[in-house]
Amino acid sequence: MKRTWAVLSSLLILALLGACAAPTPQIVEKVVEKTVVVEKPVEKVVQVTQAPTNYGNVVILSTQANPVEEQEKMRGVVLKAFAGKPEFVGMEEPALIDRVLAEAKAGKGSADLLIALHGTYPTLQAANALLDLSDLLPAVKDRNIPDAFMKLGKLGTDKQYYIPVMQATYIMAANKKALQYLPAGADINALTWEQLRDWGKNITTATKDKKLGFPASDRGLMHRFLQGYIYPSYTGGMVTGFKTKDAEAMWTFVKDMWQYVNPQATTYGFMQEQLLTEEVWVAFDHTARLVEAFKAKPGDFVAFPAPKGPKGLGFMPVIVGVAIPKTAPNPEGARQMIRYLLQDDVQVSILREIAFFPVVGVSYPGFVTVGIRMEGEAVSKQAASPAALPALLPVGLGAKGGEINKIYRDAFTRIVLKNEDITKVLTEEGANLQKLLNDTGAPCWPPDPASTGACKLQ
Q1: Whole-prediction pTM value?
Q2: Which side of the chain, N or C, has fewer Cβ within a 10 Å radius?
Q3: Mind listing the pLDDT tens digit for each residue in 281-316?
Q4: Mind spelling out the 3-state secondary structure of the chain?
């Protein structure tokens, strides 16, 4: 028993000693992180100030945007961002032609760029006064100018003498108050001239007022209505049918319609003024001379194509081109101005400020006001009509371009306002027209068929 207890005691002591023994030491690796700072060399940034591009003085002679307010818009808005010093000079076509021809003859010029209608350029090209702009074609190719317009700029040659920069035309506008008096079954976007007359008659019958309006004053563009709209619509041409039986029927119609035209029409220049005052409810005029009405009260008016006649929808597309005289002191600046004028934002600025529509592929929505979009849609509908019969502005008359306008206006005054015999007036004014064509040698232009030599009346 004592032996057993001794053994147990020994075991207990050993156990206690084991419990109190020191733990086996562990080896721990301590990693010391050391941050090494590497100094990078300081890069010195040198700012180089590049001199702004300056294309110098560019003197622009223009037969377009001639009214004082339009000239100010060209100078203060349209040309403002050009990298140079543009000088915009508005002038009438005969004066521009005389100046360019005189400078060409002298071999020294002051004008760098010309802005003019298609009909101005054949005379200048015939005198070898224009630079060939074919080298600019690659730079303007992506502008998507219609091929037909570019072809006009070649002036019948294989060289590019002008580049189209803007377009316009003449359309109709009406106060919405007039819509209730449209003839039964009439489509405002596909009217006939007879329906327009009947519309005026309905308005007069209901209101006792004559609400049709045409710009028949000396400041107005009544001659364009006659040349590009009513004559082609009834005769199929502008010149050759001037004194035909179709023309006599047309003048008979105009006299009949005129009884519903406001008697103050001979004092009207810009029809937007009479539309805004409601002196007239339905009017014909250039898009640029209607634009303020659409801008001011787009909810009050509608824009629509010109009516059509027995031979089609005569209308006058107005193509404005830019050219450089051979004597230009700054031809490179002029080239840069052409590229500037064809930029999208500048084309839209031209549309907003002077209501000439773009020749490049811009989109109306989001770029222009509601009123101007209304005009643009009417322009498109007019040109796209199956009955469209485009009539170019007179071509090849040179400095005598104003004389053809006087002949048409004189015929209007004598027949419609003075009630002279239609046949007699057309015979006499037709003789004046033929003399003008013979003196200038001007060949026929669309919509009249092409001619060899001076255009001849039937």
Answers
A1: 0.69
A2: N
A3: 999 999 989 989 999 999 999 999 999 999 999 999
A4: CHHHHHHHHHHHHHHHHHHHCCCCCCCCCCCCCCCCCCCCCCCCCCCCCCCCCCCCEEEEEECCCCCHHHHHHHHHHHCCCCCCEEEEEECCHHHHHHHHHHHHHHCCCCCCEEEEEHHHHHHHHHCCCECCCHHHHHHHHHHCCCHHHHHHCCCCCCCCCCEEEEEECEEEEEEHHHHHHCCCCCCHHHCEHHHHHHHHHHHHHHHCCCCEECCCCCCCCHHHHHHHHHHHHHHCCCCCCCCCHHHHHHHHHHHHHHCCECHHHHHCCCHHHHHHHCCCCEEEEEHHHCHHHHHHCCCCEEEECCCEECCEEEECCEEEEEECECCCCCHHHHHHHHHHHCCHHHHHHHHHHHCCECCCCCCCCCCCCHHHHHHHHHHHHHHHCCCEEECCCCCCCHHHHHHHHHHHHHHHHHHHHCCCCHHHHHHHHHHHHHHHHHHHCCCCCCCCCCCCCCCCCC
